[in-house]
């Protein structure tokens, strides 16, 4: 690749990066993400889990109370089985964590709920990474390293893999 071609490519990447970082809100980069962010959030205590209590405990123990985020439930309680479900999401522009309501049940262990909330909290701490083409990498190397600091990381990931059917079914 010639130097001139390389500089042109670098300039294109810089323009894309500047646009994504400074001109376009993070939530508008994906239509699905934008639709999800428009869904109402329920900040009340769940039937089984109190997200605010889990968040405050993790913030105190693992983040030294450095975070100031909001957390709530989203989605409808589903009946039947889904092929795919978004368990949680972090919305940077709103400083908001959303956890799917279908997880508010006894079949979901507390350590897994804590892991899920920690995972979303980690998104607020670890900067996004970008590929050479300018695509956002939400779970890049730095994020995965940070995520593995969760004390019960291996147990939570193993539980998730072993119980994927439980996660895909509704209440």
From TrEMBL:
* SprT-like domain ranges (all copies): 51-149
The domain of life for this entry's organism is Bacteria
One Pfam family from the record: SprT-like
Protein name (database record): SprT-like domain-containing protein
The organism named in the record is: Chlamydia pecorum
């Amino acid at each position: 690749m010639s130097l001139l071609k390389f500089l042109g490519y670098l300039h294109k990447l810089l323009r894309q990066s500047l646009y994504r970082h400074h001109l376009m809100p993070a939530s508008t980069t994906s239509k699905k993400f934008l639709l999800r962010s428009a869904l109402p959030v329920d900040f009340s205590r769940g039937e089984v889990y109190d997200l605010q209590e889990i968040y405050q405990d993790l913030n105190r123990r693992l983040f030294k109370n450095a975070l100031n985020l909001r957390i709530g439930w989203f989605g409808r309680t589903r009946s039947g089985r889904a092929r795919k479900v978004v368990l949680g999401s972090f919305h940077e522009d709103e400083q908001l964590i959303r956890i799917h309501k279908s997880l508010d049940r006894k079949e979901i262990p507390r350590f897994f709920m804590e892991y899920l909330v920690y995972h979303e909290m980690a998104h607020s701490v670890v900067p996004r990474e970008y590929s050479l083409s300018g695509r956002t990498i939400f779970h890049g190397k730095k994020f995965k390293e940070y995520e593995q600091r969760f004390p019960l990381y291996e147990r939570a990931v193993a539980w998730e893999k072993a119980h994927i059917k439980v996660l895909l079914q509704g209440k």
